[in-house]
Amino acid sequence: MKLPPISVDRKRTQSEMDLPSPPVTPYTGTKKTKENTSDQLEREAVGGSSRDPVLFPRHGHNVDIATDEPLFGPIIPPTAEALVEQHIDSHMARFENKLNKPTRDEYLLALSCVPIVSAQYNRNPAAWAREERETLERQLAMMQRSRPSELESKLKKIAPAPTKRVVGSHNRVQRTSRVKRTPRSTPKQKAHDTFNSPSPPSNKPPRAIGTNRDDTDYDSIKDYCPPLNTLGNNAKGLKADWKGQMLDLSHDPDRHLLSPAELSLAATLRLSCATYLCSKRRIFEARVRTLNVEKEFRKTDAQQACKIDVNKASKLWTAYERVGWFDRKHFQQYIKK
Protein backbone atom coordinates (compact mmCIF):
# COMPACT_ATOMS: atom_id res chain seq x y z
CA MET A 1 0.00 0.00 0.00
CA LYS A 2 1.14 3.55 -0.76
CA LEU A 3 0.54 6.47 1.56
CA PRO A 4 -0.99 9.66 0.11
CA PRO A 5 1.49 12.54 -0.49
CA ILE A 6 1.99 15.20 2.20
CA SER A 7 -0.01 18.37 1.63
CA VAL A 8 1.82 21.56 0.79
CA ASP A 9 0.79 23.43 3.96
CA ARG A 10 2.21 20.62 6.18
CA LYS A 11 5.60 20.41 4.52
CA ARG A 12 8.56 21.75 6.52
CA THR A 13 11.18 23.97 4.98
CA GLN A 14 14.88 23.24 5.22
CA SER A 15 15.41 26.05 7.77
CA GLU A 16 12.78 24.56 10.08
CA MET A 17 14.40 21.15 9.86
CA ASP A 18 17.75 22.66 10.87
CA LEU A 19 16.33 24.08 14.12
CA PRO A 20 16.99 22.18 17.37
CA SER A 21 14.16 20.30 19.09
CA PRO A 22 11.46 20.84 20.14
CA PRO A 23 9.97 22.28 16.95
CA VAL A 24 8.10 25.57 17.10
CA THR A 25 4.34 25.34 17.26
CA PRO A 26 3.08 26.40 13.82
CA TYR A 27 -0.29 27.69 15.03
CA THR A 28 -1.48 29.67 18.03
CA GLY A 29 -5.20 29.75 17.39
CA THR A 30 -5.33 31.71 14.10
CA LYS A 31 -3.38 31.25 10.92
CA LYS A 32 -0.35 33.48 10.60
CA THR A 33 2.35 33.78 8.06
CA LYS A 34 5.35 31.58 8.89
CA GLU A 35 8.61 33.33 9.57
CA ASN A 36 11.42 31.31 8.19
CA THR A 37 14.32 33.25 9.64
CA SER A 38 15.96 31.82 12.76
CA ASP A 39 16.75 35.31 14.16
CA GLN A 40 13.06 36.15 14.37
CA LEU A 41 12.35 32.90 16.27
CA GLU A 42 15.06 33.55 18.83
CA ARG A 43 13.96 37.14 19.32
CA GLU A 44 10.41 36.09 20.03
CA ALA A 45 11.61 33.36 22.41
CA VAL A 46 13.69 35.82 24.47
CA GLY A 47 11.28 38.75 24.36
CA GLY A 48 8.21 36.68 25.08
CA SER A 49 5.83 35.32 22.49
CA SER A 50 2.93 32.99 22.12
CA ARG A 51 5.25 30.43 20.54
CA ASP A 52 7.03 27.71 22.54
CA PRO A 53 10.32 28.86 24.14
CA VAL A 54 13.62 27.53 22.84
CA LEU A 55 15.12 25.11 25.37
CA PHE A 56 18.55 24.96 23.78
CA PRO A 57 19.46 28.36 22.23
CA ARG A 58 22.32 28.75 19.82
CA HIS A 59 25.82 29.59 20.96
CA GLY A 60 26.62 33.25 21.21
CA HIS A 61 23.55 34.29 23.18
CA ASN A 62 23.94 34.82 26.89
CA VAL A 63 21.00 33.13 28.62
CA ASP A 64 20.88 32.79 32.36
CA ILE A 65 20.40 29.13 33.31
CA ALA A 66 20.02 28.11 36.94
CA THR A 67 22.70 25.54 37.65
CA ASP A 68 22.34 25.33 41.42
CA GLU A 69 18.90 23.67 41.40
CA PRO A 70 18.64 20.06 40.26
CA LEU A 71 16.13 19.23 37.59
CA PHE A 72 14.65 16.09 39.22
CA GLY A 73 14.67 16.70 42.97
CA PRO A 74 17.45 16.55 45.58
CA ILE A 75 20.64 14.69 44.80
CA ILE A 76 21.69 11.91 47.21
CA PRO A 77 25.21 12.39 48.54
CA PRO A 78 27.87 10.34 46.76
CA THR A 79 28.60 8.41 49.92
CA ALA A 80 25.06 6.97 50.00
CA GLU A 81 25.23 6.13 46.31
CA ALA A 82 28.51 4.32 46.82
CA LEU A 83 27.08 2.46 49.80
CA VAL A 84 24.07 1.31 47.79
CA GLU A 85 26.25 0.17 44.89
CA GLN A 86 28.56 -1.74 47.22
CA HIS A 87 25.69 -3.45 49.02
CA ILE A 88 23.96 -4.40 45.78
CA ASP A 89 27.16 -5.85 44.31
CA SER A 90 27.90 -7.92 47.42
CA HIS A 91 24.39 -9.21 48.21
CA MET A 92 22.49 -9.35 44.93
CA ALA A 93 24.00 -12.77 44.12
CA ARG A 94 21.75 -14.30 46.77
CA PHE A 95 18.61 -13.15 44.89
CA GLU A 96 19.46 -14.54 41.44
CA ASN A 97 16.79 -17.28 41.54
CA LYS A 98 14.24 -15.21 43.48
CA LEU A 99 11.13 -13.71 41.93
CA ASN A 100 10.95 -10.58 44.10
CA LYS A 101 14.39 -9.03 43.92
CA PRO A 102 15.06 -5.80 45.83
CA THR A 103 15.23 -2.83 43.50
CA ARG A 104 17.45 0.21 43.69
CA ASP A 105 14.51 2.37 44.79
CA GLU A 106 13.88 0.03 47.72
CA TYR A 107 17.52 0.36 48.78
CA LEU A 108 17.25 4.13 48.69
CA LEU A 109 13.99 3.99 50.66
CA ALA A 110 15.67 1.91 53.34
CA LEU A 111 18.47 4.48 53.60
CA SER A 112 15.97 7.30 53.99
CA CYS A 113 14.40 5.65 57.07
CA VAL A 114 15.97 7.11 60.19
CA PRO A 115 15.24 5.50 63.59
CA ILE A 116 14.12 7.97 66.25
CA VAL A 117 13.49 5.60 69.17
CA SER A 118 17.00 5.85 70.54
CA ALA A 119 16.96 9.65 70.20
CA GLN A 120 13.69 9.95 72.14
CA TYR A 121 14.98 7.56 74.80
CA ASN A 122 18.23 9.48 75.25
CA ARG A 123 16.33 12.72 75.85
CA ASN A 124 14.83 11.46 79.12
CA PRO A 125 15.30 7.72 79.88
CA ALA A 126 13.23 7.89 83.09
CA ALA A 127 10.26 9.48 81.35
CA TRP A 128 10.51 6.97 78.50
CA ALA A 129 10.51 3.99 80.94
CA ARG A 130 7.60 5.50 82.90
CA GLU A 131 5.52 5.95 79.76
CA GLU A 132 6.21 2.40 78.63
CA ARG A 133 5.28 1.08 82.08
CA GLU A 134 1.99 2.96 82.03
CA THR A 135 1.18 1.55 78.60
CA LEU A 136 1.91 -1.98 79.79
CA GLU A 137 -0.22 -1.60 82.93
CA ARG A 138 -3.08 -0.18 80.87
CA GLN A 139 -2.99 -3.20 78.58
CA LEU A 140 -2.90 -5.62 81.50
CA ALA A 141 -5.90 -3.88 83.10
CA MET A 142 -7.89 -4.22 79.89
CA MET A 143 -7.05 -7.92 79.74
CA GLN A 144 -8.13 -8.54 83.33
CA ARG A 145 -11.43 -6.71 82.82
CA SER A 146 -12.43 -8.98 79.95
CA ARG A 147 -11.07 -12.19 81.45
CA PRO A 148 -13.38 -12.87 84.46
CA SER A 149 -16.60 -12.81 82.44
CA GLU A 150 -15.23 -15.38 80.04
CA LEU A 151 -13.96 -17.64 82.78
CA GLU A 152 -17.22 -17.61 84.75
CA SER A 153 -19.10 -19.12 81.82
CA LYS A 154 -16.46 -21.82 81.32
CA LEU A 155 -15.76 -22.79 84.94
CA LYS A 156 -17.84 -25.57 86.39
CA LYS A 157 -19.30 -25.16 89.87
CA ILE A 158 -18.08 -27.74 92.36
CA ALA A 159 -20.11 -28.89 95.34
CA PRO A 160 -18.64 -28.08 98.76
CA ALA A 161 -16.75 -30.76 100.61
CA PRO A 162 -18.81 -32.78 103.09
CA THR A 163 -18.35 -31.96 106.74
CA LYS A 164 -17.16 -34.60 109.19
CA ARG A 165 -19.82 -35.85 111.57
CA VAL A 166 -18.98 -36.89 115.10
CA VAL A 167 -20.84 -40.08 115.94
CA GLY A 168 -21.47 -40.95 119.57
CA SER A 169 -20.31 -44.16 121.11
CA HIS A 170 -23.88 -45.30 121.71
CA ASN A 171 -24.76 -45.10 117.99
CA ARG A 172 -21.91 -47.28 116.86
CA VAL A 173 -22.86 -50.62 115.37
CA GLN A 174 -20.70 -53.42 116.55
CA ARG A 175 -19.21 -55.45 113.79
CA THR A 176 -19.46 -59.17 113.80
CA SER A 177 -16.13 -60.92 113.93
CA ARG A 178 -15.12 -62.87 110.87
CA VAL A 179 -14.70 -66.57 111.01
CA LYS A 180 -11.09 -67.54 110.83
CA ARG A 181 -10.21 -69.68 107.87
CA THR A 182 -7.85 -72.55 108.20
CA PRO A 183 -4.93 -72.23 105.75
CA ARG A 184 -4.78 -74.79 103.02
CA SER A 185 -1.83 -77.09 103.04
CA THR A 186 0.51 -77.06 100.06
CA PRO A 187 0.20 -80.25 98.04
CA LYS A 188 3.19 -82.47 98.30
CA GLN A 189 5.32 -82.78 95.19
CA LYS A 190 7.24 -85.82 94.20
CA ALA A 191 10.97 -85.26 94.04
CA HIS A 192 12.75 -86.12 90.80
CA ASP A 193 16.32 -87.17 90.39
CA THR A 194 16.89 -85.10 87.21
CA PHE A 195 15.70 -81.74 85.89
CA ASN A 196 14.26 -83.33 82.76
CA SER A 197 10.46 -83.35 82.87
CA PRO A 198 9.09 -86.85 82.49
CA SER A 199 7.00 -87.33 79.34
CA PRO A 200 3.57 -88.86 79.84
CA PRO A 201 3.14 -92.32 78.40
CA SER A 202 1.40 -92.26 75.05
CA ASN A 203 0.86 -94.75 72.27
CA LYS A 204 0.79 -92.04 69.57
CA PRO A 205 4.01 -91.37 67.65
CA PRO A 206 5.59 -87.98 68.35
CA ARG A 207 4.56 -85.27 65.94
CA ALA A 208 7.32 -83.66 63.89
CA ILE A 209 7.91 -79.98 64.66
CA GLY A 210 7.18 -77.50 61.91
CA THR A 211 4.75 -79.66 59.93
CA ASN A 212 1.13 -79.11 59.02
CA ARG A 213 -1.11 -82.16 59.50
CA ASP A 214 -3.55 -80.85 56.90
CA ASP A 215 -0.95 -80.69 54.12
CA THR A 216 1.08 -83.87 54.21
CA ASP A 217 -0.79 -86.04 51.70
CA TYR A 218 1.46 -85.41 48.72
CA ASP A 219 0.18 -88.49 46.87
CA SER A 220 -3.16 -86.75 46.32
CA ILE A 221 -1.48 -83.93 44.34
CA LYS A 222 -0.44 -84.50 40.75
CA ASP A 223 3.30 -84.34 40.25
CA TYR A 224 4.39 -81.74 37.67
CA CYS A 225 7.82 -81.20 39.28
CA PRO A 226 10.91 -81.17 37.05
CA PRO A 227 13.17 -84.22 37.43
CA LEU A 228 15.91 -83.97 40.04
CA ASN A 229 18.58 -84.61 37.39
CA THR A 230 17.77 -81.20 35.86
CA LEU A 231 19.56 -79.52 38.75
CA GLY A 232 23.01 -80.42 37.39
CA ASN A 233 25.56 -78.02 38.82
CA ASN A 234 22.87 -75.70 40.19
CA ALA A 235 22.27 -77.76 43.31
CA LYS A 236 24.09 -75.16 45.42
CA GLY A 237 21.51 -72.56 44.40
CA LEU A 238 18.69 -74.53 46.00
CA LYS A 239 18.98 -72.91 49.43
CA ALA A 240 17.31 -70.26 51.55
CA ASP A 241 17.93 -68.13 54.63
CA TRP A 242 15.69 -68.58 57.65
CA LYS A 243 15.97 -67.58 61.27
CA GLY A 244 15.94 -70.35 63.82
CA GLN A 245 17.45 -73.77 64.24
CA MET A 246 17.26 -76.25 61.37
CA LEU A 247 14.74 -79.06 61.67
CA ASP A 248 16.20 -82.50 62.24
CA LEU A 249 15.02 -84.68 59.33
CA SER A 250 17.38 -87.58 59.92
CA HIS A 251 14.50 -89.85 60.97
CA ASP A 252 11.86 -88.51 58.59
CA PRO A 253 10.15 -91.43 56.77
CA ASP A 254 10.01 -89.50 53.45
CA ARG A 255 13.56 -88.21 53.35
CA HIS A 256 14.51 -90.67 50.58
CA LEU A 257 12.21 -88.78 48.16
CA LEU A 258 14.28 -85.58 48.44
CA SER A 259 17.68 -84.80 47.01
CA PRO A 260 20.39 -83.67 49.46
CA ALA A 261 19.91 -80.04 48.37
CA GLU A 262 16.14 -80.27 48.87
CA LEU A 263 16.61 -81.98 52.22
CA SER A 264 18.77 -79.08 53.39
CA LEU A 265 16.24 -76.57 52.04
CA ALA A 266 13.34 -78.25 53.88
CA ALA A 267 15.34 -78.45 57.12
CA THR A 268 16.26 -74.77 56.87
CA LEU A 269 12.62 -73.74 56.42
CA ARG A 270 11.58 -76.16 59.21
CA LEU A 271 9.32 -78.20 56.93
CA SER A 272 8.89 -81.94 57.15
CA CYS A 273 9.58 -83.92 54.01
CA ALA A 274 5.87 -84.58 53.43
CA THR A 275 4.96 -80.88 53.84
CA TYR A 276 7.82 -79.89 51.55
CA LEU A 277 6.68 -82.31 48.86
CA CYS A 278 3.10 -81.03 49.09
CA SER A 279 4.23 -77.40 48.79
CA LYS A 280 6.58 -78.25 45.92
CA ARG A 281 3.88 -80.05 43.93
CA ARG A 282 1.34 -77.28 44.56
CA ILE A 283 3.80 -74.63 43.29
CA PHE A 284 4.53 -76.47 40.03
CA GLU A 285 0.86 -77.29 39.56
CA ALA A 286 0.16 -73.56 39.71
CA ARG A 287 3.06 -72.99 37.27
CA VAL A 288 1.44 -75.29 34.70
CA ARG A 289 -1.88 -73.44 35.05
CA THR A 290 -0.22 -70.08 34.33
CA LEU A 291 1.54 -71.51 31.28
CA ASN A 292 -1.75 -72.73 29.82
CA VAL A 293 -3.30 -69.28 30.13
CA GLU A 294 -0.10 -67.48 29.01
CA LYS A 295 0.28 -65.69 32.32
CA GLU A 296 3.39 -64.73 34.23
CA PHE A 297 4.11 -66.84 37.32
CA ARG A 298 4.83 -64.48 40.21
CA LYS A 299 5.75 -64.94 43.84
CA THR A 300 2.20 -64.17 44.97
CA ASP A 301 0.91 -67.05 42.84
CA ALA A 302 3.17 -69.44 44.73
CA GLN A 303 2.02 -68.02 48.07
CA GLN A 304 -1.64 -68.54 47.15
CA ALA A 305 -1.01 -72.10 45.95
CA CYS A 306 0.72 -73.33 49.14
CA LYS A 307 -0.83 -73.99 52.54
CA ILE A 308 2.23 -72.96 54.51
CA ASP A 309 3.53 -69.65 55.77
CA VAL A 310 3.68 -67.08 52.96
CA ASN A 311 7.28 -66.22 53.81
CA LYS A 312 8.32 -69.85 53.48
CA ALA A 313 6.45 -70.08 50.17
CA SER A 314 8.36 -67.02 48.97
CA LYS A 315 11.65 -68.69 49.91
CA LEU A 316 10.69 -71.80 47.89
CA TRP A 317 9.74 -69.66 44.86
CA THR A 318 13.06 -67.83 45.03
CA ALA A 319 15.07 -71.05 45.28
CA TYR A 320 13.23 -72.68 42.35
CA GLU A 321 13.60 -69.52 40.28
CA ARG A 322 17.34 -69.46 40.98
CA VAL A 323 17.93 -72.99 39.68
CA GLY A 324 15.72 -72.47 36.60
CA TRP A 325 12.91 -74.89 37.48
CA PHE A 326 10.26 -72.44 36.22
CA ASP A 327 11.56 -72.54 32.63
CA ARG A 328 9.00 -73.40 29.98
CA LYS A 329 11.07 -76.29 28.65
CA HIS A 330 10.37 -78.42 31.74
CA PHE A 331 6.59 -78.33 31.14
CA GLN A 332 6.19 -78.77 27.38
CA GLN A 333 4.35 -82.09 27.77
CA TYR A 334 1.76 -80.48 30.10
CA ILE A 335 0.97 -77.38 28.02
CA LYS A 336 -2.24 -77.55 26.05
CA LYS A 337 -1.79 -76.67 22.39
From TrEMBL:
<dbReference type="InterPro" id="IPR036388">
    <property type="entry name" value="WH-like_DNA-bd_sf"/>
</dbReference>
<dbReference type="GO" id="GO:0003713">
    <property type="term" value="F:transcription coactivator activity"/>
</dbReference>
<feature type="compositionally biased region" description="Basic and acidic residues">
    <location>
        <begin position="32"/>
        <end position="45"/>
    </location>
</feature>
<dbReference type="GO" id="GO:0006338">
    <property type="term" value="P:chromatin remodeling"/>
</dbReference>
<protein>
    <recommendedName>
        <fullName>SWIRM domain-containing protein</fullName>
    </recommendedName>
</protein>
<feature type="region of interest" description="Disordered">
    <location>
        <begin position="1"/>
        <end position="56"/>
    </location>
</feature>
<dbReference type="GO" id="GO:0003682">
    <property type="term" value="F:chromatin binding"/>
</dbReference>
<feature type="compositionally biased region" description="Basic residues">
    <location>
        <begin position="172"/>
        <end position="189"/>
    </location>
</feature>
<feature type="domain" description="SWIRM">
    <location>
        <begin position="238"/>
        <end position="337"/>
    </location>
</feature>
<dbReference type="InterPro" id="IPR009057">
    <property type="entry name" value="Homeodomain-like_sf"/>
</dbReference>
<dbReference type="GO" id="GO:0070210">
    <property type="term" value="C:Rpd3L-Expanded complex"/>
</dbReference>
<dbReference type="GO" id="GO:0006357">
    <property type="term" value="P:regulation of transcription by RNA polymerase II"/>
</dbReference>
<dbReference type="InterPro" id="IPR007526">
    <property type="entry name" value="SWIRM"/>
</dbReference>
<dbReference type="Pfam" id="PF04433">
    <property type="entry name" value="SWIRM"/>
</dbReference>
<feature type="region of interest" description="Disordered">
    <location>
        <begin position="142"/>
        <end position="216"/>
    </location>
</feature>
